Amino acid sequence: MSLRIKGVLLASVVASSFAFAGAAHAQAFYLQEQSARAAGRAFSGEVADTGAASLWWNPAAIADIRSGEAAISASAILPKGDVVDTGSRIRRTVAGVPTAISGQSTSSDPIRKGVVPSGAVAYPLSDRIAVGVAVTSPYSFTTNYDADSWARYSADRTRLRTIDIQPSIAVSLLPWLRVGGAVNVEYSDATLSNALPNLSAALPDGLQRLSGDGWDLGWTAGVQLHNDWATVGISYKSAIQHKLKGSLEISGLLGPLAAQNRVVDGATASFYTPAQIIVGGRFRATDALTLNAQAIRYTWGQFDAIRLGPPLNTAIPENYRNSWSLAGGFDYALSPRVTLRAGVQHATTPTQDTQRDARVPDANRWNYGAGGTFQVTPGFAIDAGANYVDFEDTTIDRPGSFYPGTAAATTIQTNGELRNARAIVLTLGGRLSF
Questions:
Q1: Cα-based distances in Å from 164 to 45, 71, 152, 358
Q2: Rg (CA), the chain
Q3: Which domain, by its residues, includes 118?
Q4: Going by DSSP bridges, is the β-strand pair 400-402/69-85 parallel, antiparallel, or unpaired?
Q5: Total count of domains within the chain
Q6: String of b and e for 157-166 (b: at least 16 CB within 10 Å)?
Q7: CA–CA–CA angle 315, 90, 408 (5° rounding)
Q8: Total Cβ atoms within 10 A of residue 313
Q9: Residue 72 near residue 429 (C-beta atoms within 8 A)
Q10: What is the spatial distance between Cα 345 and Cα 85, in angstroms, rounded to a whole number?
Q11: Per the omega criterion (within 30 degrees of 0), is the bond before 311 cis?
Q12: Selection from 290, 169, 164, 283 nearest residue 222 by Cα
């Protein structure tokens, strides 16, 4: 084959592999499980709450602490759902005739169960200044489709893990004003694969596998305005440009395509995860009851493409759109040692109709949360939260293309649906003063 054909083959490999997404608990591939206290009220007041447990959402949260604080939690995410073929077709070669995609027409529970840990610690340097650090995993998920799934050409196995380290400083500037800032140091590690169609349906599929990792930087800034009965918080978490370097492996191609089986070391790709503009408040209605509200705007529109470095030097369109979430909830002090919580959150998906594939089975969703805190001792509390996330049924309808611009060009017209998708999330954590 010509060098041009070799190049477009490699481009199509990365185009169909390098898409970091899945039906997660928050939006697309963002996970918001950074606090058990937050989970109990459906993440409705975090930007306006105080202490180490709210550090991820707003670094100003630690400005007025009077002693050292540590918070740790773990969330078990238990998703369910079906990715169903409703008439997808594949046309092999320019002269080929569209036919049905062989294999399983329903893939059940492709998004794997997992546990997401998080933690934070903060310490006052004076009565007005505090420092802290939060360690979280904000973009992580695993999907696994069977080798004979109808969706295998867009998604086979996907694993993404991130670790975000957020050193922070906060200052109480005025009796009613806290400010804070942070740097986000984020490590990403990804492994993605999907099947490659050979030129005949009688031949087994090939496979492409991409893996890479990298360290990247972002920042967070926030304020809190407060009085005796209300706190309003505003924060901004910057977008992060991720730059991954690793390897690309192509195997199992037969016949005229066999010359493309190879391992490419040093493959690079870059993409953005979104900024978040977070506004929320906590309002003391009575001595026992506090009401919470929070809105988040996600700039997912920055995830418009995955840009590939040499030797490909191209961009793969993703065309996400900006999205938002709204949440409301309450905390009720049942006794000096027991606090109950509940809340509800609605979030829109950044994925768009006609551009949603099986690796991105995301949809608008409602999140219902309940939980509480038990104050074991004056310095130690246990937090627990449970969430039920209900996803709308939606389409999976992004067309696929392999080997474009050559006689081997293969196209896939995807017609599928995400059905009966939901998730249960169980979170347990503790907070310690020292």
A1: 21, 16, 31, 27
A2: 23
A3: 3-433
A4: unpaired
A5: 1
A6: bbbbbbbbeb
A7: 65
A8: 10
A9: yes
A10: 30
A11: yes
A12: 169
Q: What's the CA gap between 344 and 193, in Å, rounded? A: 36
N-to-C CA span, the chain: 67
pTM of the entire predicted model? 0.92
Q: Return the residue matching tokens 């492994």.
A: 191
Q: What angle do CA 216, 218, 224 make, to 5 degrees?
A: 155
CATH number at residue 331: 2.40.160.60
pLDDT in tens, the chain (434 residues): 333 444 444 544 444 444 444 445 567 789 999 999 999 999 999 999 999 999 999 999 999 999 999 999 999 999 999 999 999 999 999 989 999 999 999 999 998 899 999 999 999 999 999 999 999 999 988 889 999 999 999 889 988 899 999 999 999 999 999 999 999 999 999 888 999 999 999 999 999 998 899 999 999 999 999 999 999 999 999 999 999 999 889 999 999 999 989 998 998 889 899 999 999 999 999 999 999 999 999 999 998 887 877 776 777 778 899 999 999 999 999 999 999 999 999 999 999 999 888 887 899 999 999 999 999 999 999 999 999 999 999 999 989 899 988 899 999 999 999 999 999 999 999 999 99
Q: 């409602």: which residue's tokens?
A: 366
Dist. CA 89–CA 83, nearest whole Å: 16
Which residue, chain included where needed, has tokens 């049942």?
334
Name, in order, each residue with C-beta under 8 angstroms of 286's C-beta and a sequence gap of 6 or more.
Answer: none
Token pair in block for residue 73: 């939690």
